[in-house]
Amino acid sequence: KTDLLAPLMDTVQELTGQGAEQRAANVTPYRVIADHSRAATFLIADGVVPGNTGRNYVCRMIVRRAARFGSKIGLNRPFMAKVAAKVIDNYGSFYPELERNRATILDNLTREEERFQKTVEAGLTYVNEKLGEVRSTGAGMLDGKSAFELYATHGIPLEITRDIARETGLEVDEAGFKAAMEEHRLVSGAGKAFGPLGGEDVDIYRAILDELMVEGKLDSDGVKYDPYHGFETEGEVLAMVKEGASVVQAHVGDRVEVVLPATSFYVESGGQVADTGTIVHAEGERWEIRVDDTRKPAAGMVVHVGEVVRGAPRIGDLAIAAIDRQRRQDIMRNHTATHLLHAELHAILGAHARQAGSLVAPDRLRFDFTHPEPVTQEQLDKIEAGVNQAILENYRLNITYKSLTEAMAEGAMALFGEKYGETVRTITIGGAESISYELCGGTHVNETGDIGSFIITSEGSAAAGIRRIEAVTGRGAYDLIQRRLRMLKQSAGMLNTAVEEVPQKVQSVLDELDHARKQIARQRQELVAAEFVRLLADVPQVQGIPVLAATIANADGDSLRQMTDRFRDQYPSGVVVLGSVNEGRPVLIASVTDDLVQRGIHAGALVKRVAQVIGGSGGGRPNLAQAGGKDGAKLPAAIAMVGSILEEQLAK
Fold first, then answer.
1. What are the residues whose beta carbons fall under 8 Å from the beta carbon of 521, sequence distance 6 or more?
2. Which residue from 48, 333, 437, 570 could staple onto 473, CB 3.0 to 4.6 Å apart?
3. pTM score, whole prediction
4. Pairing of strands 466-473, 541-542
5. Pairing of strands 224-225, 262-263
6. Strand pairing of 545-551 and 575-582?
7. Cβ contacts of residue 161 below 8 Å, gap of 6+?
8. What is the rounded (10 degree) CA torsion for 512, 518, 523, 527?
9. For residue range 125-184, what is the model confidence (pLDDT) as tens digits?
C-alpha cells in the first residue's frame, strides 16, 4: 500500500479488469507480480538478463514465477512489460539506467514470458500427472528424481513444481532433486553445460523446430544425426541463433549456433568429446564458420556452435559442414582403446574392475574403474602389453544394432554414462571368441590396427575405491615415444655411453655420488669436530658459569647435538648454544647441565628467545632444545644474545 508498490498493483488490476473485491481475494498473485516485476526490471537494467546460471538464473526464476502467478488471475498473455513500464516511470528519475535500458528491459521480459508459456503448455500436464500419482499413494511429497525429470525433460524448474505442489498441499523433495541433478552431471559429463535451469534455450529450439517442420524443411525426427558415416555433410542453413535469439544473417566475429538439415558432427556423450570443424559456403566458400562445439539443446535439434571467421552467412545458404578429420580420428583411436583397456582390466585385475567414468579426447584417454587398491607396475605392464597385442592382431570391429534385451542376454557390457533405448548399438572386438562386447554410441576405428600403439601415462586414485588410468594412442603415443627417445639419447650423450647402457651407467653414477656424499659428510664432521675442539680450549664464563655460544660452518642438527655432548663431557657444569646454516636454513641447538637447570636456566626458553632474531621459533626440554629460523645472515647476532639472556634467567 506504499506509493512504491501500489501503482504496480494498480497496473496489474487494470490488466486483469478485476474489481476491488477480486483484487483483495487474489492479493498474493498481485503482490508477487508487483514485487517480481520490479526486481526483474532492476536486474535487467544492470545487465542481468534471464539465463541459465548464477544471477541470470535468479532473474529467470523471478520472471517465470511472476508469469505463473499471472496465469492464476487470468493473465495468459505476456504482461510483465506493462508492469515494468510503470516501474520505469516511477523510479526512472532516481535510477536513470532504467530509462536508458527501457527497450531492453521490456523486450527481455516479453521474450522470457513467451518462452515460459511454451514450456508450461508442454510440461504442466506432466506436473499434474506426477502430483496426481503422489496423491493417489497417500504420500505427501513428490520425490526428487521425479522433480528433476520434470525439469530436465520438460523444462519445468524446481521452483515452479514446488509452487504448484504446495497449492495442493504437497511438498517436493528438494534435497533429492539436487542429488538427481548431481548424478545427471556425473553420468552425462554435462556438468559444465548443465546449469540450474537445465537448458535455457530449449524453448528457442523447440520453436525453431516447429517452424521448420511447418515449412517442410525438417520432419518430426528433426535434424538427421549420423556421426558414423563420413566426415562431411551438405545442406541448407536452416537457422542461426546469436545471443539467445534467431538471426537471419551473421558477421565476422559473431558467436553463432547453426542448424543444418543433417550433420555428421558427434555430440559429446558417454565421455567422448564433441567434434569440431568448419562450415563453409558450398558455392565458392564466400564465408566460413569455425565450429568449436556441437550440442543437442532440445529433442530433435543438433546445433553447431562456433564463430564466423569469414564473410556473412545467411539463412538459406547452401553449406558444407566438415569435421576436423585428424582430430576425429585421434578421438576414434582413443575410444576404441578404452574398450580394449576395459577388457584387459577384467583379464588382469578381475571382473570387479568395471568402468566408473571416462574421457575420450583427441590428445588422451582417461578411464576410471572400480578397484580397491593401487595397480602394481607389473599389472600395468601386463595391461599395456595386452592392449597392444590386441592392436597388433588387427581385429575388425563388428558394429551392429539389436534389441537391448538381446544384447544384455548375450553378455554385452553397458558403458558408464550411456542412455539406452529399446534398440542399442553394440561394438564387438575379437575373433571367434570376442575380447570385448559393449553397448556404445561413440565413434570407433574400423580395425584395432588403426589405433597404432597404446601407452599408459599414469595410474592413480580418482575416489575411494575408484582408480584412474590415463593413456595415449596413435599420434599422441608416437609423439610421447619420440620425446622419450630424444631425452634418452641426450642422457646417453651426457653420460658418454650407449643408449642401451644408460641404466647401468646411471646406477654407477648414483653409486659414486652416494660414496662421495658419505665422504663429504665424514670430512664435514671432522672439520666441525676440529673447529669445536678449538672452541673448547677457551670457553668464556657468565657469572662464573662456562658458556659456549658459537656458530659452526656447514653443520647439521645431528653434528651440533654431538658437539653439545662433547661439551658436557668436558664441562660438568655449563651452557652451550651452537648454531649453523645448513642448506640455507639456520639451526640452533642449546644444552644446559642438570645443576644449572636447578638454578633456573631452561634450554627450551633460551633457544626460543635466540631463535626470534633469525625469524624462527623452537623449544624443548630444560636440558636440551632445538630451534630453526629463516634468516641465516642474522645467526651471529642471535648467538651474541646468549650471554645477556642467561644473565636475565639467573637474575630471576
1. none
2. 333
3. 0.59
4. unpaired
5. parallel
6. parallel
7. 127, 142, 147, 150, 151, 172
8. 140
9. 788 888 888 888 888 899 988 888 887 777 777 878 888 888 888 999 999 988 888 777
